[in-house]
């Protein structure tokens, strides 16, 4: 509230939300300007430890974000969850706000504890193609692993949606490693998820048909289990090597028909 003489009174509303936060949350840009002119702390936190900048990002209020940044809001500060405003901007799927933060020099490291950035992973998970494009242009590591060692390509391979094919193509064109070491490999993930288009895309980019996952299954084994793509995997053995099929005989029940179908195809390899 503003007292006599225009002096800002540090007063809380009934829920202990501060005046500047209330104005930001209500998208009242003129009131925000007036409060800032009268000395309101632009970086003060509310009861949820959110700054006005974080609130405006959550509201997808581009004009408010621009105002707060121009007025000196801190944009590289970590909140109590050790995450930055840029993290929340990517989560909110707002390209304009992300662009504003990056233009201001926002740090690419969005998690203080891990010292890594997982923004590209988030954009892929959100199927936000435009965001993926922007982050790649800005130099985000296309082969970086997250806390479970998945790369953005692995995230795309897991998805069963059409958008993942377009995203996967973009990642591969940006030098994503199709055979990057991981607890599970990209072709296997795509087969397990039933994403046949992504599997074909990975194979066309030279994914190793003999690469093993954490249980020592190759893509062919995964195909035998799931009943998809057995023949296509065999046809993609570019180097003329015999595809490993011995372990297929260990499968029973669900895999039996696939094994019977695969073995004759592999005899001539």
Automatic annotation (TrEMBL):
Keywords assigned: ANK repeat, Repeat
SMART domains referenced in this protein's UniProt entry, alphabetically: ANK
Residue spans of the ANK repeats: 15-47, 48-80, 81-113, 115-147, 148-183, 188-214
Keyword Cytoplasm annotated: no
Key word Repeat present: yes
PROSITE patterns, alphabetized: ANK_REP_REGION, ANK_REPEAT
Lineage top rank: taxon: Eukaryota
Pfam families per record: Ank_2 (PF12796), Ank_4 (PF13637)
Protein's name according to its UniProt entry: Serine/threonine-protein phosphatase 6 regulatory ankyrin repeat subunit C
């Amino acid at each position: 509230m503003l007292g006599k003489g225009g002096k800002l009174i540090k007063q809380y509303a009934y829920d202990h939300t501060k005046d500047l936060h209330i104005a930001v949350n209500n998208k009242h840009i003129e009131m925000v300007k007036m409060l800032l002119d009268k000395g309101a702390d632009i970086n003060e936190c509310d009861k949820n430890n959110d700054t006005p900048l974080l609130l405006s990002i959550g509201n997808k209020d581009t004009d408010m974000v621009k105002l707060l940044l121009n007025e000196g809001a801190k944009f590289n500060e970590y909140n109590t969850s050790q995450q930055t405003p840029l993290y929340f901007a990517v989560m909110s799927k707002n390209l304009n706000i992300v662009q504003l933060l990056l233009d201001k020099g926002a740090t690419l490291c969005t998690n203080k504890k891990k010292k890594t950035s997982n923004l590209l992973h988030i954009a892929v998970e959100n199927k936000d193609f435009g965001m993926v494009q922007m982050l790649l242009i800005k130099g985000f590591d296309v082969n970086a692993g997250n806390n479970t060692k998945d790369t953005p390509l692995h995230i795309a391979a897991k998805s069963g949606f059409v958008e993942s094919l377009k995203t996967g193509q973009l990642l591969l064109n940006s030098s994503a490693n199709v055979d990057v070491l991981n607890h599970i490999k990209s072709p296997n993930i795509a087969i397990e998820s039933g994403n046949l288009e992504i599997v074909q895309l990975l194979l066309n980019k030279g994914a190793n048909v003999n690469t093993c996952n954490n249980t020592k299954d190759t893509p062919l084994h995964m195909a035998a289990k799931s009943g998809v793509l057995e023949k296509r995997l065999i046809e993609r053995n570019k180097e003329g090597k015999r595809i490993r099929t011995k372990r297929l005989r260990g499968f029973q029940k669900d895999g039996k028909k696939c094994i019977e179908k695969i073995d004759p195809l592999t005899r001539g390899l």
